[in-house]
Every structure is written in C-alpha cells, then in structure tokens.
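TA notes. Do not distribute before section.
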Amino acid sequence: MMLRACRWLALGCALLAPATWAQQQPVDMPPLTPPAEALPPAAQEPDLYLEALQAISDGRKSDAGAILTRMVQRGARNAGELLDLAMLQCALGRADEAEALFVTIETTFKPPKGLQAIIDDQRRQGCIRWKRQQQWGVNVARGYDHNVNQGASNPNYSVDGGELTLPAEYRPKADHYATVTLDYVTDLSENGDLAYVQLYGRRNDHEFDHNTISAFGGIDHPWRWGRWKWRASGLAGALTLGGKIYQTQTQAQLRLTPPLPLPPSMELSLVSGLTHLKYRTLTNFDSNTTELRSILSHRGDDHFAQLSAGAMRDHAVASRPGGDRNGWSFGVSTRQALGHGLEAELDWNALQWNGQRSYSPGLIDAVRRQNSRTLRASLSYAVTPNSAIQLEWRAIRNKENISIFQYDNRIVQLSWRWRDGK
C-alpha cells in the first residue's frame, strides 16, 4: 500500500495538471507498475488502472471515464484500489465521486499517515475540471524573393518548325514582400479533439498580381485501439492570387502509429491521405491526389529529427495536360537547441512527378518529368517565453525535362512570431 502512496506522490501533480493543446499528442507512458508481488490480485488482471492513466495522458478523458466505469463495476478490494479510483475520478473532474471514495477509505480502512496525507493534499488542491485549452499566434515577416512568379530559367523551347519563346511576364521577377499569419487552435472535447484556423496574407512591393491570401481550417481526432495510435484529420481552405480566388482545397488524412519495439525517443507512423484541388481560374486542372507516406521521428531533450518518404498518385479530374501523374517524395528535417534562446533548423525535401502522356500533342510532345528540390535553413532567438525572431533562407531548384517549366528561386526572410494561450 505504501508503494501506491509513493506512486501517487510522484505522479499526482503531473497527471492532474491541466494539459495544453500542444500536449494532446499521444505519448507512451513510462513503466509505472511496481513489482508484481507488491500488487493486490485485482491489479494483476488486465491493468485497467494503467489504461486509464494512459488515456488521461493522451488527453482522452472520455475514454478514461469509460475505463473507470469498468474499474468501478469490477469493484475495489482494498484501500489502495479505492485510492486509485478516487484519484482517477478527481483527474476527470468528478469531485463528488472522489470525495465519497475518500470518505469510504477513511471510515472503512483507517488509512496510515502516508495515505491520509495524500488524501488531505488532494482535498486542498481540489479536483481539476476539464477546461477548454486555446492557443493563438501571430507571425509578421519581411523578405526578398528572387523569383516571385516562378519564372522560367530558360524561356526558349524548340518545337517543330521553330522555337517557342515565353513572353517577359513568364520570366523571373524579383521583389520584396511582407507577410502576416494568424492562427488559432482549440480543444473541442475532453478526448483530445482539436480545431484550428489559419489566415495568411502576402503583399509584394511591386508584383501585385502575385499577392496571395489564404484561409484554412480543420479538425483533428485522436484515438487508440489497444496500443495502436490513430489520428484522423480533415482540412478545407482557399487561396487567392492577385485578388481573385485561384484555388480551393479539401483534404482528409489518417495517421497510424503501431506499437513497434523502438526506443522511447523514436516513433514510426504511416499516413494516408486524399486531397482534392479545384482551380477557379484554370480549366482542366482539377485533381484528386492520394498519398501513402511513412514518418520516422526522433525526439530528444534539446533536438528533433524526422525522415519521411511517400508515394503519390495524382488523378486528373478532366483532360488535364499530361494526364494523370505518379510521384514520390522524400524529406529530412532537424531542429536543434543551441542554448541561450537560440534554435537552428535545417530541412531538405525532394519531390518527383512523372506524367502519363504527352503534355500538349503537336506543340509539346514530351511527357513531363518534374524534379524539385528544396533546402531550408533557419535560426531563431527567443526574445520572451512567448515570442521569437527568426532568420530564414530557402533555395528551390525545379528541374524538368520541359525547359519552359524549369525555375530556380532563393528567398531570405526575417520574421517575428508571438504565441499565447490558456
């Protein structure tokens, strides 16, 4: 019984503290079970207690409540199990039920001083009821874009009977720009459901036809099936270009994290998704894209690294130039804390698309092959606990077998971001 008391003293504050929205990601709990000989017979059965703790840690309060109901139905056999039930009731915000169990422990089992101290301390703290967690942020940036319009590196293309030359408006144009990003995230339920909204605007100093505004919103629902972690999400939004709606997008994703025998700092997930793009100012360019991607991540005390690789199929809704496309993607990203509020990031991404048929028979007979590489590096400094400044550099190299689609770009940006929540 005293082992249970020590366990609650060590875990009570962490388990009963309100979680922020960013802590809703499912994480594996460290081993909490004392030696089997120290546990009562009921606790050596399927461990509903640990299942309930895991559900609370994941932010799945409703699931924890269902598990707790099963524990109550099974019945507690001693003061230690009653204390477990009481503390779980308190963690779920059920103050009256927790107090009734505390009274039963005091009147029936006459608990020793250590156990009574836990009860008294919990009464002083009170039971924490679920409260909606929210976070909002602002990001303001100023930058320089060497190729605002993704102008062709080589504007000339040889065709039967001559050479095709692109007009000047399709050649690279450089400009300074400013951006503002607003985002908001909030809990929807006790079970870890989230909703988020992001608004983004970019204004160029001179190339106004390439000014953009976007608005996106989505929901996210996590759950568990045994030790398997699942997460479903949906997203919808729109993008304007030069003051007109250019594109709308809807997306559905499902993420699975199986219980593999990996180190605690590592996690492997599989992501499947379906994205529908509709172009408002172009005809025959709408598409449905399916994707299957694997993500391997490693998280340390002061660093984070991630590898991702995926295969994609882009199905043209109508008679799109080049028809359907198959592709693959690969990405590497790292983030490292440098101390004194400094943090560095480095990302590299590769994307390959292969068309199905000639891009434009009679004019461009080649089957389009797109090969894009992006390298990004940034250094940020935390000015306050809620704000930071960031210097970012990005290089894009889009190599294609059709020269008029090739382009290179470099972007340098200085931004300030602020986050707050409750």
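Switch to the second chain here.
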Amino acid sequence: MSAEPAGPGADEQGEAARVSAARAAMVAGLEEAGGLRPGPVRDALLALQRERLMRQAYVRRSAPEEKPSRWDLLDWRVPADRDELLGLLYGGESVLIQHDGEPILGRSPGPRCGGAITSMSSTVGMTARLLQELDLQRGQRVLDIGTGAGVTAAVACWICGDGGVVTLDRDRHVTDAARTYLADLGHRPTAVTGPGEAGWPVRAPYQRVFVSYAVPRVPQAWVEQLAPRGRVLANVTGSSPSWPGLAVITKTPGGRIEGELRAVEFGHRPGHGFERIFISRAFLDRIKAGDGGRGFRSHQAPPPDEARAFWLAVDALMPGLVRNWSADYLVIGAPACGSWLTARPDGSGAWTVTVRGPRDIWDEIQNVAARWRAAGEPTSYRLHVDAQGEQWVSAASGHPELTWSLSRRPANTDAEEEG
C-alpha cells in the first residue's frame, strides 16, 4: 500500500520545525558558553520568533574597506533568502536592519550600494547577559532606550508585561517597524520616537532602564527618571572601541544614587553623533613595516589583557588609543597623530618594544599602570553622580591615584542602534 501524500501544510510544518531547531540551538549555545542561565530571560529568548521580529536583514557583500560598500537586503518571504537569513538571525551575531535611515516597513529586498547601516540588533550573547543583569520582574516599569529591532522590548514585555514597557528610538521608521512587528508577536509596549538622552518622563519613574548604545556619560534625565530601588544599565566609554565600560546606576530606597563602572569585554556601539576612532588598514600596514620605529627591551610588563579595569583606565586617562585585537601580540595605535606601539614578550621575562610618533604609548601605559597599582589594582570603579550632573570615576578603594571626570561634551545620544 503506497504512502499517503503529505498534507498541504507539510512544507510550512517543516519550515517551522527548522526554525524552532535553530532557535533552540542558539539558546543552547549561549548556555554552553556560560552567557545564559535558567530563568525568565532564557525562556523569553527560547520563545522569541526572531524571524517575525526581523523579517528583513542586511548582509554585507563588500570587503571591510571597499568603497562604495555593497549590501544585500534579505527577505524572509523570499525562499531563496531563507537559509542565509536563518543563519543571520540565529547565529548570535549582530543583525543589520536599517540602511541610511530608510523606512523599514514596505521595503523591497535586493542590493544596496554606498551609505551605512544605521540600526541593528545587538549580539545575542551580550543582550542576554545584560538582560540577566537587569533582573527584570513581573509588573516592573521598564524604559528601553534604543529600540533597534525590538529584541530587548520583546523580552521585557514577555517578562514584565506589556503595560509597563516603554521603548524609545530617535528614528520614527525604527519605532514604526518595531511597533508593527511586536504587535504581530502579541506584544504592545508603548513605542515612542524621541531623543534618547531625554528619556521618556511621561511614564516615569522606571524600575529598570536599559540602553542599547554607548554614551560618554550617563544623561541626567535617566537618573532623574529612575524609581527607588531602580537600576540603569548603559555602556559608558571613550571614543575607542577597544576597552568598553558598563555603568550600573542604582537608586536606594531613600533616593541616593550609587554607581559602578565595570570594565567589560564587549559593549554596544556608540549612539548617534558619538564618533568612534579606528585603525585603518593603511595604518596597520605602516605599523607592521615598522618604518622609523624606535626599538628597545623592557623588563616592565604591561598588565595582562584580563586586567580590563586597568585598560579601561588607559582609555580614560590616555585617550585616543586603539588596540588591534587581531594581532597575537600588543599592538596599539593613536590614529589622530600616527603614533603606535608594538610589544612582544621575548621568552626571558623581558619585552621587545617598538614605538613611533609624538606620543610614547609605552611610557603612557606604564604611567597608568603605576597609578593603577598604587590604587590597589581595582577590578571595577565607583561612578559618582551628583545633583548638579557632575560625574567622575574613582578607584573603588577610594585612593586618589586613579580618578577621572566623564566628559560634558555634547554626546548627541539620540536613541538608536541596537535593541
């Protein structure tokens, strides 16, 4: 007896099973890597249908420094795009969702040339770690600044309930798309458009504030809109992408503000108008050639990469430096002036060092290292915020050897980028 043909829904069922398996594999990978533990965030990520929240996504087709850049917009409705799009959505990396500030709803898939990506969804691992740190609870009022694709808003709705969640983005196209796609998933947070640095006082105070982009300092509005026992999480960094910091701001039941600045391995990209420096391929080639560099041996070693709080202090106290993490030895450049440093252990306990340029980067590192050691080699810092909006960082032990102010320069921290 011949087998009966598959029913009309067999293809759809097979596709749904494939997507469900990819989602489960993503969550399992996060657990194996130690970035996700049992609890509401894990359950929310396991339930979140990312292919319905991010129905289209960009993939870059050009080399990193090729001009003009070339992109393809993949679409879940196009069968030929689904395999690659499934890998993007559940592979764990950032998902690029907007090009050159375009409307997101109603776009035609296909190639794009030139321009830049203006909104994205952050890496899943970083999002999961931060959401767990936020400690979301049912019934909390949450302000999600930087809507992006709406992933953090979706998780907040799933855990806390839609009624208390406000998601804010500077771009109305991002807001419109998130509102539409979240509603398709059954979530209806308050989705609003406006400058991120102003927060959203209409629904304040908030028990939790989550920020999906980096800022040079914590805007005062975020602190003022925080409820007693509330918490703000935001990446606070300088212009270098090499050594990010995470600000954790809490408000005591009595209304006192307490802050901590932690050095972290990964952080969000900067907000709109907050430019980040980088080392170009041409600069790396000059460093590799070593032309004009001054070489010497040193028995003073820099603190290891794992001493992230030290390197965070380097970024703050000696700004303008960028680490080349792709090298298997220490390579740091100062793009603004062309100074650079290479340093390799020579196996005898000493380091072979080469420096070039008006800045002596090796001397700068050793100077900060001495101050860091004098302060007790702190692994995190106190972040001080006073009523007048002044913000400064000090070693948690209170030693004066390691203190710096956070810039008051305009940050243009409109909500955007990565949620």
